[in-house]
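ARCHIVE CARD
Drawer: 12
Card no.: 0347
Subject: one protein chain, sequence and derived structure
Cross-reference: see card 0346
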Amino acid sequence: MKNKRMWRGFFQFSAIFNFSAAFAMLIIPGVFFDLLMMGDTLTKEVMPWLHQFAGLVLVFGFGYWLVSTNPMMHKDIVWMGCVGKTVVFSLAWIDIALFDAPIGFGILVVADLIFAMFFAVVWRSKEA
């Protein structure tokens, strides 16, 4: 955590990543699903679940923005983000492996795993 300004910018970027994903799910779900190679799965039955997921992604984005104000003070949110992003990555790839889910979603969540690795660096840091 030597460069606190860099880490603050990183968490702002993390927040913007989540905000972008959440707004895409809420505002342009057709485009979002097409990007993920899941366009044929966007049905009226999926929409409530998509909205719930988008809401959670949005809330985590607000958490990352809060972390950007003082990463060391908000390590609990950093830990939740690390776990949450790792779980999203893992479940996506389990769905791909076991249920023939489209690869597009798996490609997107590689970013979540990368974020999780950087979150772990901050979470394990001893600097205040």
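Annotation on reverse: Residues 89 and 109 are 5 Å apart (CA to CA). The mean pLDDT is 95.
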